[in-house]
Amino acid sequence: MPALEIAALWIAFGATHMLLSSVALRPRLVGALGDRAFLGVYSLVALALFVPLVSIYFGNQHAGAHLFYLGGLPGARWVGYALMGAAFALAVAGLARPSPASLSPGRPEPAGALRITRHPVFMAAGIFGVAHLLTASVNASELAFFGGFPLFAVLGSWHQDMRKLASGDDAFLHFHDATPFLPFSKPSQALLGLREDAIPIVIGIGVTFVIRYFHASLFS
Questions:
Q1: What is the pLDDT of residue 88?
Q2: CA 30 to CA 37: how far, in whole Å?
Q3: What share of the chain is helix, strand, coil (3-state, %, to 5)?
Q4: pLDDT tens figures, 79-111
Q5: Confidence (pTM)
Q6: What residues have CB less than 8 Å from 157, skipping those under 6 apart?
Q7: H or E element: which one contains 152?
């Protein structure tokens, strides 16, 4: 059943992400391989799981029992479009300003997208999944595929926080206490962050319009 295959790959993807970057295992791997080689192995393992996950879904869209369709509700599609704009804006801004919680951290200061959430790239993936569940016709394969994004985003972000807090880094502790976990949960900070990262956020919104324009030809 495609939905079970997709769910299994999501579990393997999340488990390997957290295991390889864990406090117990990562230092030993870095000591044996070096930082660059470790990141290379980490990335290869992620690709080896994520590529078939995506491939299986696109080969089995709308497989399994039909569960629900929310896109016909008043305003649901516009909410979905707004969420997609937020997702791409956070992704671009997060790549431009890496989070100190990530494996390749930036400076531990709350600024730009990090005022919106201290995990902008992870949370962008989560919002992407929620937006599609809100607007797509959801069968079992859609629920397994798109539902995996917000679950992975929340669990992955939580794991990053726990790993960095366990290191005893005072600079990260200050950053952690000064930034929100969930996106836009501190509105006044979020508005300041939007102004500070205006250019990457505008680029992300532009990417949203382009993908929306070509969506039918690329993904249907």
A1: 97
A2: 8
A3: 75, 5, 25
A4: 999 999 999 999 999 999 989 988 767 778 899
A5: 0.92
A6: 101, 118, 119, 122, 123, 181
A7: helix 140-166
Distance (Å, rounded) from C-alpha 97 to C-alpha 2? 37
Tell the residue number behind the tokens 């992407």, with chain if given: 128
Give the DSSP H/E element, type plus range, for residue 196: helix 187-196
For every residue of 58-118, DSSP letters joined together read: HTSTT-S-EEEE-TTSTTHHHHHHHHHHHHHHHHHHHHHS--TTSSS---S---GGGGT-S
E strand or H helix at 137, and its extent? strand 137-139
Contact indicator for 175, 111 with CB cutoff of 8 Å: no
Q: Is the pLDDT of residue 11 over 90?
A: yes
Handedness of CA 57, 17, 40, 175 (dihedral sign): positive
Where exactly are the structural domains of the chain? 62-219
